[in-house]
Amino acid sequence: MTVAELSVQTDGSYRDRIVAVEPGGNEFIAEADRHGHPHQLFWTWSSPNLEFVTIGVRLPAHIARALVTVFFGVAGFLVAWWALADAAASYEAFLLIIAYWIGPWLGVVFADQYLRRGQTISGFLYDRSYANWGGLLSFAVGLVLSVLLFSNQKDFVGFVAKAVPQLGDITFFVGFLIAGASYLLVCRSKITAERAAV
């Protein structure tokens, strides 16, 4: 089974059991043990474990859940405590920092989709031997260069942003462009060869 079964009866109530997809096997969860809507349960229980599976860490589901819960709970507490002095400014900085990595990531994703247009890629999703280090390299180059040059935060202002403050914080856009262009240059021959082999 690859997706959670969230069956709904005709009266709109959920059946007495749902299936949550877990790396260690599927768990059947009784109605009394659920604390929210089924779609919330799926993401709460499965999403952190899927990250462990994706990077190749093999842990029993209950240990993976516990580690993720403790790690992110402690990290969230520490970040919140650190940011309490000026919560509004800290939250704005937090949102900008999130945007810093999303731009380069999207640049790599869109460039990959452009190079692979028309190609089915579902086989790569389950192939642990497949690696595309050019994607990671392009992402890192886009992230580092865009932050160093265009970041405009309270604690760090990039070199170009310092010289031309009228630009504002355009790190997201620059990261997107640098990472996408880098990916097109670095990975074009690899992906062309993969398309020819299929």
How are the secondary structure elements laid out?
Elements: E1 17-20, E2 27-30, H1 38-54, H2 61-83, H3 87-115, H4 122-125, H5 133-150, H6 159-163, H7 171-197
Antiparallel strand pairs: 1-2
Describe the structure.
Strands 1-2 form a two-stranded antiparallel sheet. The chain has two domains: 17-59, no CATH class; 84-197, no CATH class. It has seven helices and two strands. Strand 1 and strand 2 form a beta hairpin. The chain starts with 16 loop residues before the first strand and ends with a helix. Helix 1 packs across helix 2, helix 3 crosses helix 5 and helix 5 packs antiparallel against helix 7 (171-197). The chain has helices at residues 38-54, 61-83, 87-115, 122-125, 133-150, 159-163, 171-197; strands spanning 17-20, 27-30.
State the helicity in percent bands.
55-70%
Q: Runs with pLDDT <50, length 5+?
A: 1-46
**What strand order characterises the main sheet?**
1-2
Counted beta strands: 2
Radius of gyration: 21 Å
How far apart, in Å, are the first and last alpha carbons? Answer: 27 Å
Q: What shape does the CA trace take?
A: flat
- Mean pLDDT, nearest integer? 75
Q: Spell the H/E element sequence.
A: EEHHHHHHH
Total helices: the number is 7
Main β sheet profile: 2 strands, antiparallel
Structure class: mainly alpha
Key attributes of the depicted protein:
single chain, 198 residues, mainly alpha, 2 domains, two-stranded antiparallel ribbon, 7 helices, 62% helix, 4% strand, flat, disordered N terminus
Explain briefly what this protein structure is.
The chain is mainly alpha-helical.
